[in-house]
């Protein structure tokens, strides 16, 4: 197609032969811009459709999820990502306590994540209930972690003993 455009342009004397390299470069740049724009628009519309169609096609039971709302993660015990986030939360909490000067046997020891919810925000916010022990005493902690996979980022926002257990 590019050859046909170049040939017709040369034959109809729109450009002279000395301008041909400039014309070719401009044509290639325009083609690159159009392809890049089309690709970005495709990715954008795919992201929008996934975000807005997920509630329609459902996430099983309960009529789907509301965008921005919390959704329960049902396979918590077998979900490796959720269990890893629980371990991350405990590790970050212990590290934070040591950095603040706490010493002794007060470290929290991870057992498992027992409940989890996820919320799409500027990343994915996980609300975790973590079974753990502290000084040999079984406890449940609540943790909030934000994950931004596109920048390989995890941030512990909150970690505290649960008031419900």
Automatic annotation (TrEMBL):
Keywords: Membrane, Protease inhibitor, Thiol protease inhibitor, Transmembrane, Transmembrane helix. Coiled coil: none annotated. InterPro entries: Cystatin_dom, Cystatin_sf. CDD domains: CY (cd00042). Residues 65-162 form the Cystatin domain. The chain crosses the membrane at residues 20-48. Pfam families: SQAPI (PF16845). The keyword Membrane applies. One of its GO terms (molecular function) is cysteine-type endopeptidase inhibitor activity. It comes from the Eukaryota. This is Cystatin domain-containing protein. It comes from Liquidambar formosana (Formosan gum).
């Amino acid at each position: 197609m590019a050859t046909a455009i170049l040939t017709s342009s040369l034959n109809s004397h729109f450009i002279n032969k000395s301008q041909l390299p400039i014309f070719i470069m401009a044509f290639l740049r325009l083609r690159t811009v159009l392809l890049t724009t089309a690709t970005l628009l495709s990715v954008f519309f795919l992201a929008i459709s996934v975000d807005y169609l997920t509630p329609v096609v459902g996430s099983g039971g309960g009529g789907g999820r509301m965008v921005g709302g919390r959704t329960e993660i049902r396979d918590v015990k077998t979900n490796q990502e959720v269990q890893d986030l629980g371990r991350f939360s405990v590790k970050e909490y212990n590290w934070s306590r040591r950095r603040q000067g706490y010493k002794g046997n007060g470290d929290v020891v991870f057992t498992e994540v027992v409940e989890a919810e996820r919320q799409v925000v500027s990343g994915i916010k996980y609300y975790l209930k973590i079974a753990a022990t502290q000084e040999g005493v079984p406890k449940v902690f609540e943790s909030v972690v934000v994950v931004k996979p596109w920048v390989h980022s995890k941030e512990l926002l909150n970690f505290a003993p649960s008031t419900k257990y």
